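Lab manual, section 2.4: Encoding a predicted structure.

Procedure: take the sequence of the chain (89 residues), apply the prediction step described in section 2.3, and record the output as structure tokens. A sample record is shown.
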Amino acid sequence: MLNRIGDYVWESTPEEIAEMQAEQERAEKEYWQSVPYEDAVNAKIRERYTESQEFAILRQKDEKPEEYATYYAYCEECKAFVNEKKEEK
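Recorded output:
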């Protein structure tokens, strides 16, 4: 596999690629174990909603129940995702 950064090009062997992938997996597991649950859930929610959008949805939940239901379901997905990541060993 050829790698490139700017004009610099180098080739990685299958063994090097496997080691890079293993290192990436170790780093990801370490991250999920170190980040507090609340921070991880908030970060995941922020991938779709800004804080202002959340406040607007919560303020208008009675007027726009479908939008609130979508938001709520996504928040539950985020919590489940973070729980799953934190439980991986």
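Check your result against the sample. Residues 65-87 form the longest helix (23 residues).
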